[in-house]
TrEMBL record:
Localization per record: Membrane
Gene Ontology terms: cellular component: plasma membrane
Protein name per its UniProtKB record: G-protein coupled receptors family 1 profile domain-containing protein
Domain of life: Eukaryota
Membrane-topology annotation of the record: Multi-pass membrane protein
Gene Ontology molecular function terms on file: G protein-coupled receptor activity
Length: 310
């Protein structure tokens, strides 16, 4: 079997992930409670609920990654948990990407076709989109249950390893172009069109939910673009072992940016959906609730029935 080397010590390798975990896990849990239980998925909050759920799941899988690193890269949880880890990691990552792409298209339609959006858009379309996104991401993540296994390397490390053999190149092509780069391009393109049309039109100030979406998409593009570029380079370097080895550190550090993105999303929702962005010094979750349950067919001053503050 092939040997493997690690360039990061266990502490140095897990310290950023532990910090990200402590910052993001409770924050995403709060957003899930707010949108799922307190607001009961009213209005457009179902998008935010799905995003927070996928981010929460991603961070939970990071716990297993941290455990593995602290054990000297030894996997002690068995073959089934190894496969489950890869499946859940793929599921959460792709679901976030697909949801943001769908949300970006939804915002673009609002700007390009405002009359149709307010008068003819199906009321439960957001729910159907989110359900379809989870189903599609689950189907594309099934390979995580097929190829990963626990392997003993020459240096004595028992690792959770994803050995796809002759299917490596076609599966990598699927992941990079279809599951990753294509929705990423859709998201960037529609987001750019939306911003350009909004800046060109002299209309009333954008709604709080629109600001949340715009900020979330912008941060996602900035933090995930390096990873997408690295993935494309990996696809080119599969036959060049030297270049492949040189790209591994870039994959590690750009991965930290993705981890960071899952943790800061809840703070984007809180900042742009509360009174902070309008100059208030207090966080009022009633303002956030109003933004997340916003119905674009109603007046900007409409507020949800649930009113509470913190």
């Amino acid at each position: 079997m092939e040997s493997r080397n690690t360039s990061l010590s266990p502490f140095n390798g897990t310290a950023p992930d532990i910090i990200i975990l402590l910052i993001g896990l409770p924050a995403n849990g709060f957003i899930i409670w707010l949108t799922g239980w307190r607001l009961r998925c009213r209005g457009l909050s179902v998008f935010i609920l799905s995003l927070a759920s996928s981010d929460f799941l991603f961070l939970c899988v990071m716990v297993m990654q941290i455990m593995e690193t602290l054990q000297g890269d030894n996997w002690v949880l068995g073959a089934f948990m190894c496969r489950l880890r890869h499946f859940l990691l793929d599921l959460s990552y792709h679901c976030s990407l697909f949801l943001l792409a769908a949300l970006s298209v939804d915002r673009c339609l609002l700007v390009l076709l405002p009359l149709w959006y307010r008068c003819h858009r199906p009321l439960r379309l957001s729910t159907y989109i989110c359900l379809g996104t989870w189903v599609a991401a689950s189907l594309l993540s099934i390979k995580g249950f097929i190829f990963p296994d626990v392997i003993l390397f020459e240096d004595g490390v028992l690792a959770c390893y994803n050995d796809r053999g002759k299917y490596e190149w076609p599966l990598r092509l699927l992941e990079v172009l279809v599951e990753g780069f294509f929705p990423f391009v859709v998201m960037v393109t529609t987001h750019a069109v939306t911003l350009a049309r909004t800046l060109r039109r002299h209309t009333r100030a954008p709604s709080q939910f629109y600001r949340i979406v715009a900020a979330t998409l912008t941060v996602y593009v900035l933090l995930n673009l390096p990873f997408q570029i690295t993935q494309l380079l990996f696809l080119v370097a599969l036959e060049n072992q030297e270049l492949y080895s040189r790209l591994i550190p870039f994959l590690i550090y750009t991965g930290y940016l993705i981890n960071l993105n899952t943790s800061i999303n809840p703070y984007i929702y809180l900042f742009f959906g509360s009174n902070f962005c309008t100059g208030s010094s207090h966080l009022k979750t009633s303002s956030l609730a109003s933004a997340l349950t916003e119905d674009l067919g109603k007046s900007p001053g409409h507020t949800p029935e649930a009113s509470f503050s913190a």
